[in-house]
Amino acid sequence: MKGSALSQLGQRTAEPPISWLMAAALEKPGLISLAAGFTDNPSLPVAQTREIVSSMLLGKTGQAPLQYGTTAGEERLRRITARRLAKADGQPAKARAYQPDRMLITHGSQQLLYILTEILFDPGDIVLVEDPSYFVYLGIMQSHGIFGRGIRMEEDGIDLAHLEETLESLKATGDLKRLKALYLVSYHSNPTGITTAAAKKAKALKLLRRYEKAAGHPIYLLEDCAYRELRFAGEDTPSALTMDRTANRVIYTSTYSKPFATGVRIGYGLLPEPLFTAALRVKGNHDFGTTNLLQQLITRALTSGAYEMHVQKLRQRYAKKASTMMSAIQRHLPEGVKWVQPAGGLYIWVRMPARLKTDLKSKLFKAALRQKIIYVPGNLCYADDPTRRKPNREMRLSFGSASIKNIEEGIARLGLALKRVM
Ligand SMILES: Cc1ncc(COP(=O)(O)O)c(C=O)c1O
Q1: What are phi and psi of 365, to 5 degrees?
Q2: Ligand 1 centre and the CA of 37: distance in Å?
Q3: What is the DSSP letter of 266?
Q4: Which of 190, 251, 262 to mutate to test the pocket of ligand 1 (most atoms within 8 A of CB)?
Q5: Ligand 1 geometric centre to CA of 139 (Å)
Q6: Is 90 left (phi over 0), alpha (psi -120 to 50) or beta?
Q7: 37, 90, 108, 254: which sits with the fewest CB atoms below 10 Å from its CB?
Q8: What's the 227 CA to ligand 1 centre distance in angstroms?
Q9: Whose CA is closest to atom 15 on ligand 1?
Q10: Using a 6 Å cutoff on CB, does residue 39 contact ligand 1?
Q11: Ligand 1 site-directed mutation target among 106, 258, 396, most atoms within 8 Å of CB
């Protein structure tokens, strides 16, 4: 039969580029994957979780976590999470942006990103994204028929001059009406490891405001802070919530996945109205509430101090893994290769000398595969933006899940692959 019963979204949604990489990692014995976004296995909080779960399920107290909860999430978790964020930002708990009634608990922050996309955008709309950006979010955009416009990156976040230039050109072509948001992965970004400077977030917010009149609606700053707690060097940076004078233009999303356990997948966000109400309704349709058992698990981890202790340990662990990877890069990768030194997160963004391609079809990727090492090709992290060519000489290396030994060995193998093709 010729016709398809799939909806437009069903037909449009492309296969996630990462699925091939994941499958390759499983299929090839001995392959070292520096591609996966997984976290460190040996340090997962198994004993702490076992203790919490068994005390949670004692007697009658065990009934509540096994029951449905509310759509917005567990009251206590919303309150504690909102308070933690206010504290991290150096703001009073009573500040408007941090009120628990703005807090939505979701199944990973991924679900929140999806719901936000559903409530904000129609096919044909535009999102400004960092160039490069989080490729799974680029996938959500592609699936919804949303266009990305990439904003060039500097060492401390987006290039504000390029942001302004892009806004100006959208205004000139009458396309501002389709622009609803700027999406930033502002802490130890996936994929670049870059943290956006506070001053840049403040200026970006101001700039977006300036173009709202021509757009005819609010333009939001969607701040994805998934890696904020995985900082292992330097000071924390205030979130854009602290710069949002009217407390109604910044959407803050984050997660307990990365700093505690990725298998638990509890995400959260602070949303201004009318987004909170719209998101709550859509979340009601998705699942009318995140798994109660897991929410209660995280709540107990937070209130018992187990969470804080675990994050401290993780930070040290990732600091060691990152430094192992950086010194291996220095030793094994040839001159001309540049990389961004991360102060947190799970990734190192590496740029090859000019002319050396890194995509899945490139000589380098194939040579790396022969050496049994894989990376995420950088071109997969760029939005389909027709105003520029996608760069194709970068790679994302993750020090999250590989062991210290495999990080060393993996970079040495990558060095061999590079020698073969250079
Ligand atoms: C930038 C970014 N945002 C959001 C997520 C989603 O994480 P989770 O759904 O586990 O909270 C990820 C996961 O890799 C990520 O890298």
Answers
A1: -60, -40
A2: 9
A3: E
A4: 190
A5: 13
A6: left
A7: 90
A8: 8
A9: 226
A10: no
A11: 258
| Among 381, 369, 392, residue whose Cα is nearest residue 190 | 381
The gap from C-alpha 102 to its chain's centroid, in whole angstroms, comes to 21
> How would you label 107-133 residue by residue, b for 16+ Cβ within 10 Å and e otherwise?
bbbbbbbbbbbbbbbeeebbbbbbbbb
- What does the alpha-carbon distance between residue 291 and residue 287 come to, in Å, rounded to a whole number? 9
Backbone angles phi, psi at 210, to 5 degrees: -60, -25
Q: Is the minimum distance from the CB of 138 to ligand 1 under 6 angstroms?
A: no
Which residue in the block uniquely carries the two structure tokens 């940076």?
237
Token pair recorded at residue 304: 């018992």
275 close to 252: Cβ distance less than 8 angstroms: no
For 38, the token pair is: 């997984």
Which DSSP state fits 276?
H
pLDDT digits (tens, 9 = 90+) for 188-224: 999 999 999 999 999 999 999 999 999 999 999 999 9
DSSP result, 320-348: HHHHHHHHHHHHHSPTT-EEPPPSBSSEE
Task: DSSP letter for 375, please.
Answer: -
CA distance 400 to 391: 25
Other C-beta atoms lying within 10 Å of the C-beta of residue 387 = 8
CA distances from 8 to 19, 99, 116, 120 (A): 22, 38, 19, 18
Diameter over CA atoms, the chain: 66
Give the atom of ligand 1 at the shortest distance from the alpha carbon of 37: 14
Mean pLDDT across the stretch 122-141?
Answer: 97
State pLDDT tens for residues 233-290. Answer: 999 999 999 999 999 999 999 999 999 999 999 999 999 999 999 999 999 999 999 9
Q: Are 224 and 180 in contact (CB under 8 A)?
A: no
